[in-house]
Amino acid sequence: MTLYIDPPTWPGHGRLWSHLVSDVSYAELHAFADALGVPRRAFERDHYDLPAHRYADAVSAGALEVSSREVVRLLHGAGLRRRKGVAGAAPGAQPRSS
């Protein structure tokens, strides 16, 4: 199981946030987030938003630190990228075959 997280540089609600993603499936992503105690409401389309104070927890649990560009590249490569306002696969969907 490999998950990826970008640095907490995204502002919102008076905090900085990171994006936690999987390059395999949403099921893998949800399982990792559940193990960290991240609430499902933090899931947005294709990633979890994690506040800066949870960044080290995710890395300690095994998430690999990558750039924000790499997060997007990984999601696209896996067929898991879901843009705002565009209908996408169900949250438990598996990536498309290559």
What does this entry look like structurally?
- This protein is an alpha+beta fold and 98 residues long.
- 29% of the residues lie in helices and 23% in strands.
- The chain has a domain at 12-78.
- The protein contains 3 helices and 6 strands, in the order βββαββαβα.
- Strands 1, 2, 3, 4, 5 and 6 form a 6-stranded mixed sheet that branches.
- The protein is globular and about 30 Å long.
- Residues 88-98 have low confidence and may be disordered.
Oligomer: single chain
For the biggest sheet, the summary is: 6 strands, mixed
| Helix coverage percent | 25-40%
Beta-strand percent range: 15-25%
- End-to-end separation: 20 Å
Protein name: DUF4031 domain-containing protein
InterPro entries: DUF4031
